[in-house]
Amino acid sequence: MDWNSWLPLWIVLSSLLPGLLIFTLAEDRYVLRTSLNMGGVLLKLGLVGWMWQGVKAGQDYYFELPFLPGAPLVLHGDALSMQFVLLSSVLWCVTTLYAIGYLEGSPLRSRFFGYFNLCVSATVGLALSGNLVSFVLFYELLTLATFPLVVHRGTAAALKAGRRYLAYTLTGGTVLLFGAALLHSLIGSPVFMPGGYLQPLLAEHSGVLTLAFVLLIAGLGVKAALLPLHGWLPEAMVAPAPVSALLHAVAVVKAGAFGIVRVVYDVFGVEVMQQLDLGWLLVVLASSTILYGSWRALQQQDLKRRLAYSTVSQVSYVTLGVAMLGPVAAIGGLVHLVHQGVMKITLFFCAGNFAETLGIHKIQELNGVGRRMPLSSTAFTLGAAGMIGLPATAGMLSKWYLATGALEAGYPWVLLVLLGSSAMNAMYFLPLLYRIWFLPAAPWPQERVLSNRFETHWMLLLPPVLTAALVLLMGLLAGTDISPLSWSKLIVEREFSYD
Amino acid sequence: MTEWTLWLWPGASYALPQGPMVFWFGFSLLLWCCAALYSMQTIQSRKTLYWISFVLAMLGNLQLLLAQDVLGFYLGFALMSLSAYGLVIHRGDKTARQAGRLYLQLAILGELLLFAGLLLRVDAAEGALLIANLQTIELTPLTLTLLLLGLGLKAGFFPLHIWLPLAHPAAPVAASAVLSGAMIKAGLLGLWQFLPAQDPLLVSWLPGLALLALGSALFGALIALLHQSSKVVLAYSSVSQMGYMLLALVLYWASPPELQTAAAWLLVGYCCHHALLKSALFLAAGSVNHYRLSTWHGALLLWPLLSLVALPFSSGAMVKYGLKQGLSESSLPALPLLDALLAFGALCTALLALHWLRLAKAQWQLPGPSLPGTASLAWGILVLASLSMPGWFAALRPQWLASLSFSAVLAALWPVALALLLHWGWQRSGWQLAAAWQQPRSPALGWSLWLKAGYQSRSRALPELRLPAWRQSERWLNRRLATESLLPGVCALLLSLLLLLWLLSG
Question: Which of A79, A314, A323, A413 could anchor a disulfide with A282, C-beta 3.0 to 4.6 Å?
């Protein structure tokens, strides 16, 4: 048995098995459940780290299992999947810690953490999927695994949001399935490869290919919250804070964005995209989503809703970068996949901390939080600065590469979109920072003492502090070998250097 | 050149300052140190906010002076601009908040324009990130406009000055000193570094820029006469002086290559001269307003003024003479009435100085605590540096010597004498400006409010939510399911699943 070919499977199983075990645990088995959780997450992190080393050195990780006729279940670790796998496992690690702190003492924890682990397995599986059929499979699994998390609180609003979420994503999944089936009927489901595998069909079937592209993007666009399909995302913010953090940063929206990256680069490929003249469509769609999301975020008075609309806008940066079909823009889009995740998860952690500790949900209740919760507020500030794209944060680098790429790829007007979105980001984040730091404190809506030593429970405090530090480090040390920027450059090198 | 390339962001590179930049770095550092010294005992409230903003702004300013790459400069510039917001609103009252809002809005706007400008430049240079690489790339009208606006918003010359007369007076004096002395110069430095001299497009725009600079010089000094607050007068004086510095920069861009070094020294000399005297004046204004002073403080108060009106032997005479001489020798298309305009500018500056002196005198020796020793020390150091500048700024020694010739002294003195006469006549006649003209309110505050209303629109509130009844039965079911007996069963299932996987993958 070849160890390398089993590694992708072990990475998926390292959270699937603990997840299934957790389902069976009684509510009061706190220690066992927490050790299973953390053990699985740390094991996964170790395996992913190993695989990352290997992929960097050019090692190939390939696992295959018969699944459908002509379409095996393939798990394949390449540079692009490593970007997403690494992002999800690192952020999942901090979120698990956060969720343990957040849900302490609340009911139904076993159910929650069970699905929580299924969710990460689906995400990682999706990242490692080696062909379109496996991708669709994990994509659907992800939908099913996240639904119980969205409705976890069981309130009317949560159930309503959950129904909406299911309606959107299941329809999206069906459309995606149609697209994938269409392509499968034409050429089967070969392994994803840089440059795509549709070149031979181009001459005869260009119409069908366009149709398949539209179907795939429509299916993926639901999760990536592209413009007409974004309706579920702001509703889904009724979920508990760690779930929102994951939905917005890693699991669901990123799965959609990652899918778009896969479809554009590894199914269709840049050349086919150019010959079918499909890129501009996606660019326009992404640009309008960016502006629309920022504009709607401006109008929100609820902290989490504002962050949710901000996600709608920011995730489309990834789509934008990929759709422009130039190498530099691709670096911008791919690096934003990571940067946006880390920045947005920081913001959601902080919003959760404000809500848990002080009962703050509305923006006007934020006055003077900076003095009561300095660390969370600093983390929030860093996350917001990253979103605006202020220098020294990770966000500025994404913006820089996207804008340079836009000029290089011949879309100079995209620069205006980026600037406009930055300006609106400043407009909806800076007033928050002003309230947090400069206004005198009002009585908090509902204060709870969660810790005697820190401003809040340490498990709630540590994750945002860590991710905020990452926001800064990814910006300042972007030139080093281990930065997401360098890795994105590596991906682009491999994706664009095929023959 | 000592240069370090670091593993920071792509292209990050630093170098020790060289040539004229040594002085630029030196006066910035001195200003920040003196401002910190002055703040030590004069800042009594919201100390954490003040010092965090102060240190961050200082780091940003020094970083942008050392950075050799585009992103490093941009980083320092943004850090400095945004942190200075904490200094502007430190007082916390309504005026300060309004000034701060306008400041921040324009800082962000400037930031975005600068970003776009730099981006287009780097793109034109095919991704080269060092500032030195941009020098051979031709400007386009778009990039030139973006850079002029983005950096000009910080430099604060007319008509991009609108935030300056509001923000500088609102900040504590030590912060105003660095704002006026060091930070607005960063905008000028950016223009100097990012716009290549001899660029055909830039050269064709130079007459317009020279007119703008002269306009700014006159406009600032004239508007200052309408105001009755000593710090506002100083802020408008900064607008006026930035006009002169822009003129020096235009002179640098217009000089042929063999004269460029001299022009660069003149530009840095002017910046250094203004930085030292204006920060000393701001400290003087704050000290007079809030503290009781000894008689010898009067000397500290007077000297920078003499330097401002360019009396012989002062650094002002040196740089003004250098500027005049440079303009007359330059290849700029001859501006009509240039000499007359410069003389009129000198007259306005002298009037401004007298006006300010009158305002300061009205505050002199009002009851209050005496000025702390550290504050006196900081103020004294700045005045001393300003006083001795002709001594240590060797590059402009010839200009200084030439400014002592009879004709030059005469040319420097008559506007001052005329201003004295006018001021005396004005005081004697007791003539007052019409009320509508006094303390004109800036229209910019209205624009700022309008913008704020735009981004603070509200949406409807969400309805309250209730827990459904069936939730109880779900909990009961969950309790029943979550029993220990399930554990072995699931384990067995998982193991068989693994076995199956292993068999299938064979």
Answer: A323
